[in-house]
Write a structure and sequence with these properties.
By secondary structure, the chain is an alpha/beta fold. The chain is built from 15 helices and 16 strands. The strands form 3 sheets. The protein has a 7-stranded mixed β-sheet with strand order 8-14-9-10-11-12-13. The longest helix has 28 residues. It is globular, with a radius of gyration of 23 Å. The chain starts with 10 loop residues before the first strand and ends with a helix.
Length: about 475
């Protein structure tokens, strides 16, 4: 009796090779029965993405290294790698006064790349350095068209994370003008800024803080004004890190207002007990899935619209090295941060004119700057229109934006939800694009855990398919 030919290995194609895509690939490669894995990512290495590809020395991870991990089941993995690699000795400024280590972002990218190296070398993971252009669904799976080839896939994982930032409507007249930086993520975006230039930074979150730190490292000493709708600057880390404090999961709030009341009362209890506010937000982060799942869709939308700005500045903290730059520049009166809305802008000779209205005031101010920098962050709400792969899937009605405008509508098993409200077979969403369903999916620990979960769900699906084929 002739033996049956071996069944070809299933092929999983991951679109996006930043941290999310790299983490999914690694966890798939560590499964007992590994599929063939292809990651489509135009950058020269996997794991860096927008967040960790920066070569700028002032750009540091914004949480202690002890909380940064590619492997959720090994919480000290990155810290041990750092100690073995000797990075702290090469970068003594990475170690803060309380002993926490905040390495440069490119160091974390190198760590991720090293974890993938053996799997790339032995062919378990293949890296296609091309741009994804289109995806089509067929009877036997998926076809991914890149800038150089077509790739057949049994399972597709959407792991794109950060689309390009959008230019605020009031600043569109400055598009193309000398001195206007539309996307600070470009490597040479700040190269031509003079040391004494007056600078307006639109946005006051992590990217804004990084921009100030980079300008300062480059020798800039001119005036910097950061403006945002709420005027809220990203907060820093405590001098002494404590344990997460509070309980938001045992009886989670059913409304955004109820959650806010719970947070306020917990903050008051923490303050009375000598516990810092960061410990409360650490607990909120850990219990985020339970908090989010307890809210109705309408309450989730209300939470995003009303409280997101306040959450972001407390949740996404800046590295103490960056915070020290902001504090020093503020003390020197060369940096300020205000709450205001942009009204209009125009070119005014060699300078850029921006009209704005400070919060709580009716009067419009006309200010002039040498440079205007947009740091409003990735335009997640427009990802389905700006990314060609996502746009092709959207045009085919295989994906759609979630009702909160955060990313792709995703089922609880991490598959994309199709037009009939049912999960699309073989189409998974990993990382921040799935946060409309899972809530907190921007922080690295949460993304790492979700990547591990997605890999397990893919393994389960492949195992079920194998069992069906054997039964036949």
């Amino acid at each position: 009796m002739n033996a049956l030919p071996p069944r070809p290995r299933s092929h999983v194609v991951i679109l996006g090779g930043g941290f999310t895509g790299a983490a999914v690939a690694l966890h798939l490669a560590r499964q007992p029965v590994r599929p063939s894995i292809t990651v489509v990512e135009p950058r020269p290495f996997l794991g860096g993405g927008l967040a960790y590809s920066s070569e700028e020395p002032s750009h540091r991870v914004n949480v202690p290294a002890s909380r940064m991990n590619l492997l959720p089941d090994e919480p000290e993995h990155f810290s041990r790698w750092l100690a073995h690699d000797g990075e702290a000795g090469r970068d003594p400024e990475s170690q803060w006064r309380n002993g926490d280590i905040f390495p440069r972002r490119r160091v974390f990218a190198r760590y991720v790349a090293e974890q993938l190296k053996d799997h790339l070398d032995n062919g378990t993971i293949r890296h296609v350095r091309e741009h994804g252009l289109e995806v089509r669904r067929g009877a036997d799976g998926w076809t991914v068209t890149t800038s150089g080839q077509s790739i057949a896939a049994d399972i597709l994982v959407l792991a794109m994370t950060h689309p390009s930032p959008d230019i605020p409507a009031a600043l569109k007249p400055l598009a193309g003008a000398r001195g206007f930086v539309a996307d600070v993520y470009f490597a040479d975006a700040l190269d031509s800024i003079a040391a004494d230039a007056s600078v307006l930074i639109v946005g006051s979150g992590l990217t804004s803080a990084d921009t100030v730190a980079e300008l300062d490292r480059r020798g800039h000493r001119g005036r910097i004004l950061a403006v945002s709708r709420h005027g809220l600057r990203s907060r820093g880390h405590p001098q002494l890190r404590g344990q997460p404090f509070g309980d938001f999961a045992s009886t989670p709030a059913a409304t955004a207002l109820g959650l806010l009341e719970n947070i306020r009362s917990t903050l008051a209890a923490a303050d009375a007990g000598g516990v810092n506010w960061q410990s409360v937000f650490d607990q909120l982060r850990l219990q985020g899935p339970a908090i989010w799942s307890a809210l109705t869709p309408d309450e989730r939308t209300r939470l995003v619209r009303r409280l997101r700005a306040f959450w972001d500045v407390h949740r996404f903290r800046i590295a103490p090295q960056v915070e020290a730059v902001l504090e020093r520049r503020h003390a020197e009166r060369t940096y300020d941060n205000i709450a205001a809305s942009l009204v209009a802008s125009s070119r005014h000779g060699d300078r850029l004119a921006v009209n704005l209205r400070r919060r709580g005031e009716r009067q419009i101010e006309a200010l002039h700057f040498d440079v205007v920098i947009n740091t409003t962050g990735p335009a997640h709400g427009k990802a389905l229109q700006t990314n060609p792969v996502l746009r092709s899937l959207c045009d085919a009605e295989l994906i759609h934006i979630d009702r909160h405008g955060l990313g792709i509508e995703t089922a609880l098993d991490s598959r994309a939800v199709g037009p009939e409200g049912e999960p699309v077979p073989g189409l998974f969403v990993a990382g921040p694009l799935a946060r409309g369903t899972f809530g907190e999916l921007m922080g690295l620990p949460e993304v790492a855990r979700h990547a591990q979960t997605v890999a397990s769900q893919i393994e389960a699906q492949l195992g079920a398919q194998s069992a069906i084929e054997v039964a036949r």
